């Protein structure tokens, strides 16, 4: 179900939302109407009253942003952006800014989400058997046999773009060019 409001506080980062809560409560304490403030912010009036209730129960500290629970990621956002930029630069020979990398990932449908649940029908023994025996056999067969007419590997367009740009078939380290790993491989 989509939110009916144009402006949604869930889209704001924690520090911005904290500043908004504090400023709104300050304005209510200065005598402004909470419902008018809610309308001006594009928030529900219940949200502004909830902020006021938190303030009255716990003072200004109750309005501060709390840390997000859960395990910290191994790579922070800057490291991830650097990694993607380096991969694009090495494989495609194109230099992108950090903003362009994030925009590209978002346009491709990559979001920082993970599935909540694993398939309950999944049999771990069968998955292990497929990964260790069947998949390697399929991969070696695919490498030996040429693709059917009209079909080219997913990364063939990248090699074509490199040739057009005058780049050699070698990576930045001097070794042979290798296609990026597939996301679907185990």
Structure characterization notes:
This protein has 186 residues and is mainly alpha-helical. Among the domains are: 9-63; 71-108, no CATH class. It has helices spanning 14-29, 34-41, 45-58, 77-92, 98-107, 124-144, 156-164. Helix 1 crosses helix 3 (45-58) and helix 2 (34-41) packs across helix 3 (45-58). The radius of gyration is 26 Å and the shape is elongated.
Which structural traits does this protein have?
186 residues; mainly alpha; 51% helix; elongated
Instruction: Find the structural class using helix and strand composition.
Output: mainly alpha
- Largest sheet data: none
Q: In total, how many beta strands?
A: 0
Radius of gyration: 26 Å
What is the overall silhouette?
elongated
Task: Report helical residue fraction.
Answer: 40-55%
Low-pLDDT segments: none
C-alpha termini separation: 34 Å
**Alpha plus pi helix count:** 7
Order of helices and strands: HHHHHHH
- The average pLDDT is 77
Strand content: under 5%
């Amino acid at each position: 179900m989509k939110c009916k409001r144009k402006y949604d506080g869930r889209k704001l980062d924690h520090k911005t939302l904290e500043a908004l809560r504090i400023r709104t409560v300050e304005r209510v304490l200065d005598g402004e109407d909470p419902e008018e403030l809610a309308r001006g912010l594009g928030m529900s009036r219940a949200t502004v009253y909830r902020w006021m209730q938190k303030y009255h129960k716990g003072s200004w500290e109750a309005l501060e942003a709390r840390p997000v629970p859960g395990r910290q990621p191994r790579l922070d956002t800057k490291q991830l952006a650097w990694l993607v930029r380096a991969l694009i630069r090495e494989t495609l020979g194109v230099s992108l800014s950090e903003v362009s990398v994030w925009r590209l990932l978002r346009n491709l449908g990559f979001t920082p989400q993970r599935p909540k649940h694993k398939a309950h029908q999944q049999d771990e023994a069968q998955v292990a058997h497929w990964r260790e025996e069947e998949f390697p056999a399929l991969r070696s067969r695919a490498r030996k046999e040429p693709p059917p007419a009209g079909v080219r590997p997913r990364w063939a367009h990248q090699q074509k773009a490199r040739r057009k740009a005058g780049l050699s078939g070698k990576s930045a380290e001097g070794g042979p060019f290798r296609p990026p790993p597939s996301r679907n491989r185990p």
